[in-house]
């Protein structure tokens, strides 16, 4: 986890998920969670940051 991505997770959770994974299912889930309450969106973003590698690293790892 980079410091910048973690900072985004606390300030703008959907942006952090978008940076990490792109505009997929997890991004939209995070948008809904953030709209329902900022804390659930933030927790989901931190979970995504901790549990998944960033998009480009995932793609390079599979080839």
UniProtKB/TrEMBL annotation:
The keyword Transmembrane helix applies. Its main location: membrane. InterPro entries: PMP3. One of its GO terms (cellular component) is membrane. Keywords: Membrane, Transmembrane, Transmembrane helix. The chain crosses the membrane at residues 27-50. It holds the Pfam family Pmp3. It comes from the Bacteria. Coiled coil: none annotated. It is found in: Membrane. Belongs to the UPF0057 (PMP3) family. This is Proteolipid membrane potential modulator. It comes from Allorhodopirellula heiligendammensis.
């Amino acid at each position: 986890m980079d410091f910048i991505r973690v900072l985004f997770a606390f300030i703008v959770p959907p942006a952090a998920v978008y940076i990490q994974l792109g505009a997929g299912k997890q991004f939209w889930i995070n948008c809904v969670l953030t709209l329902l309450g900022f804390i659930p969106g933030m927790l989901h973003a931190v979970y995504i940051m901790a549990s998944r590698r960033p998009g480009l690293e995932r793609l390079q790892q599979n080839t």
